[in-house]
Design a protein that fits this description.
There is one protein chain. By secondary structure, this protein is mainly α. About 60% of the residues lie in helices and about 10% in strands. The protein is built from seven helices and eight strands; from the N terminus they run ββαββαβααααβββα. It has helices at about 30-35, 60-65, 70-90, 90-105, 110-125, 135-150, 180-260, and strands at about 20, 25-30, 45, 50-55, 65, 155, 165-170, 175. α3 crosses α4 (about 90-105) and α5 packs across α6 (about 135-150). About 10% of the residues are buried. The model is unreliable at about 90-120 and about 120-150 (pLDDT under 50).
Length: about 260
């Protein structure tokens, strides 16, 4: 069975409507969490963990509020189950009668007097050869009736074919016993664990690639700095060489000019 607290927004206390997940992994209704966004400071403080999330604009905030499809499907499934159970309770002569015919149990909506008469009749026919007082039959019938009305559905499970208390399974949408529901829940849990491990592996891979990228980036920046230093050194040497040639040519020109004056 789905825990109602898991599909209830902690802000509006209603079932999630368009559930969205913020960067700290907490989920709220989109309208609820949108009302918590500060348009002036462009920040969002998580109502649960109080973590501050900074954004550049409201559009970025809305884009980064990822839709929580898992919670949305849980809400839909829960409402579907509630609607199905309400239908069973409101139509005792159709749905409940069909289930009772298929699985051999007495629907709880049957009138008490009719149930008592039917149980007494069956009991008298089965034990007609015994000298059982009629008052015992009435007590026995009342006891059976009380046991029948204390439970919602008592019939054969569609999965294991064993008679017991039945509920609607959220995994297969069938009316099955609690033991089979637990087994189906284990299937769901195992599937979630597999998906979680797959996501965890992908995250670790991306994290390692990110670390490698940062390492490569640092190496490239280091090489770029070394190249810049080398370029500066070579530039200084070229400037010195040019100045030397310049001074040499100036001295040579001055020497020739003095020689010409003497002549």
């Amino acid at each position: 069975m789905i825990n109602v607290n898991l599909i209830t927004c902690t802000l509006c206390r209603n079932f999630f409507g368009d559930p969205r997940q913020i960067p700290c992994s907490h989920s709220f209704c989109f309208d609820c969490i949108s009302g918590c966004f500060d348009d002036e400071a462009l920040v969002l403080i998580c109502p649960k963990c109080k973590k501050l999330h900074q954004y550049n604009s409201r559009e970025e905030f809305e884009d980064r509020c990822m839709r929580d499809g898992f919670l949305a499907s849980m809400v839909t499934q829960f409402k579907k189950n509630q609607s199905r159970l309400s239908g069973l309770k409101s139509r005792p002569t159709s749905a409940m009668s069909q289930i009772s015919t298929n699985y051999g149990f007495i629907p709880i909506s049957t009138p008490v007097r009719m149930l008592t008469q039917e149980i007494n009749s069956n009991y008298d026919q089965s034990y007609s050869q015994r000298s059982t007082p009629s008052i015992f039959n009435q007590q026995r019938s009342s006891s059976v009736l009380l046991q029948s009305t204390n439970r919602l559905l008592i019939a054969k499970c569609q999965s294991c074919n064993i008679k017991g208390e039945l509920i609607v399974c959220t995994h297969c949408d069938n009316v099955i016993c609690i033991k089979c529901v637990d087994e189906h829940q284990s299937i769901i849990n195992n599937a979630i664990k597999r998906e979680w491990n797959l996501c965890k592996t992908k995250f670790q891979t991306l994290h390692e690639q990110s670390n490698c990228f940062e390492t490569d980036l640092e190496e490239c920046m280091c090489k770029a700095r070394q190249l810049q230093i080398l370029i500066n050194e070579q530039g200084d040497k070229l400037i010195q060489t040019i100045n030397c040639y310049k001074n040499s040519y100036i001295d040579l020109i001055e020497k020739h000019r003095r020689t010409d004056k003497q002549l």
